[in-house]
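Review form for a predicted model. The reviewer records the input and the model, then writes brief findings.
Reviewer: anonymous (R2)
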Amino acid sequence: MGKNQVGNNDTNNNSNNSTKSMEDSDPNPRFRVYKKRWFVMINLSLLNFSIATIWLGFSPVAYKASVYYNTSVSTINWLSMSTLVVSIIFGFVWSYVMNRIGLRACMLTSAWMAFVGAGLRICSTIETIPDEVRLALLFIGQVISGIVQPLAIYSAPKLAAIWFPSNQRSIATTASGMANPVGVVLTGIVSPLFVDQDGFIHMRYMLIAYSCMPLLCVVMTTIIMTSDGPPSPPSYGGTVTTSENFFAGVKEILQNRAYVILMIGVGSAIGLYSSFATLVEQVLCPWGYTDTIAGVCGSVMTLAGLVGAIIMSLIVDRTKRFSESLKFMFISAAVATIVFTVTHKMYMGYLIVLEMGMLGFLSFGISPIGMETAAECTFPVGVSIGIAMLQISGQTLSILLILLLQSLGRPMTPEELIHHGSKCHSSSFTYFNSSGTALPKVFPEVITYDLTVSTYVMSGIMTFVALSFLIFFHPTYKRMDAEKEATRIQTAINEETLDIESPRHQNDTLRTFCMDESGEFDNEKSTNCEIKVREE
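Model under review:
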């Protein structure tokens, strides 16, 4: 049996030299990683962080903001709700657009629109214009920034696939996407700093402060993102996207049973977390917990969750056990939710913070690990489509669950509030009855609700989702399988044991390495085509 030489010795020498610059862990000299990937990840992390501060910057100072803009508190609350609404509407749009405009254009669009929105919010502090115009500028700026929130979040797994090797994708997705909740935590600390002791809020300075990060992101994105991806891909998974048609991709993944289960599960987890974080103060304050303790609970839950998400991402990067890790987090989150439901009415002081921290630590990783699992299950469909539908599912369920859980609250009587030591109202909202007993004044706008039934519903939903996920979720890791096949073929090529004339090797994987569209070998397509081929 003879052998033909495809390529030449010079090409072989060049290939051998180039291999020395690759990571030792990658057997395929066609793939390499670049240090620049970390700067790109930091850039996207800061972008998600800055958009989150714009989203919820008013929540910690809602009453002060309503006085400043001469409007109601409910109107100020709609600033954050408007972001969720436009995120759902534009989520499908961005998932359709992402594969066509590329990662660089996605990040530039996000940075510039966030900065423009932040600038319009600053204009709303000009006191010489009518209140209606100021409020309109505020909402327009908020909506513009909210429109690109899903675009920035969806870019996280796309960045991981394009810039990072397979053993770093989960941590890259976590770091890029989870910067958003870090921004949420920061707003609870920063916004109150602009309120004087007499209650006056320096709104202009606060909005200027929140516009500095988007400006930095505009500068960084312009400088760092000179291309959509690196000159050479980091892995085989970063080179292939065969389903370019958006609607065909949506149809394909909705026919994927594992992905549908994943979408429902992760979407439910995101919705429950968002509703829980929104209502935690209302759940705890009737039972003697102060606003300070409730605020610390929300921050600790998020920060502990970030630590847990990073640890789980590192574990998944090493073990590739996506399904097992998700099932562990779902069951742990269900148990932690049940424990909170049973104990939250027993006043424990700051010990409740530890309980909330454990809940966040055990459950927060569901979102980033779920996004990476979606990319594995739906490969080679464009990663942005699967991630977008996960996020839209979570955002939709967040709104529905918040409305449902609020509706299940039971108004509490003044006597109940006194008996349980409620801290929902300050001492200035009290009066003394004829017997000299202090009772809280209950106005229509400050009615206190017992949300115990709501916590039961949360526990029930989380338990049902966790058990269903444990029983029915059995995914196929299509991206990992494709990368293993690519590595096997490349190894066979390097060892000169692959019979390329065999019909079973005329597949997309081999074509990606060495063949042009007609099936002929193309030495210019890859540096790895300098191989010896067996002749029958």
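Findings: The radius of gyration is 27 Å.
Further findings: The first strand starts at residue 3 and ends at 5.
Recommendation: see findings above.
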